[in-house]
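Researcher: Please predict.
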Amino acid sequence: MRAVVQRVSRAQVSVGKEVVGLIGPGLLVLIGVAKSDGQADADYLVNKILGLRVFEDAEGKMNLPLVDIRGAVLAVSQFTLYGDVRTGRRPSFDQAAPPQLANELYEYFVRKLRDSGIACESGRFQGMMQVELVNDGPVTILLDSKREF
């Protein structure tokens, strides 16, 4: 699994005119699932995200995790994180998981975040979504459960 994690002061995701997920300070997580992924990959990313010390402490240093600022997560499924453009100009999505597996692992990922006690909003799987955010910093971190960026 791959994740693009952005520290935000606020973020929302809409489908059409309906806002389906909205958070204040926290993390926007764009999440992609590969064919070879399983629950262990989701567990790895959840634990990594929960432990990321990307929020400023009283001295202005990035030293605090999400729980310490009482932040939230907005998790948005994004299969295009597995778009491969090493050859040609049109992305190949051969490594992206088929929809059923991707949805199962995305829902598992969201459930694990919620089970941790973190407020977690989500997008709509396979929906045509519009994501709005205010990237705070900006701070953007790339995570991969296979650790192979």
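Model: The mean pLDDT is 96.
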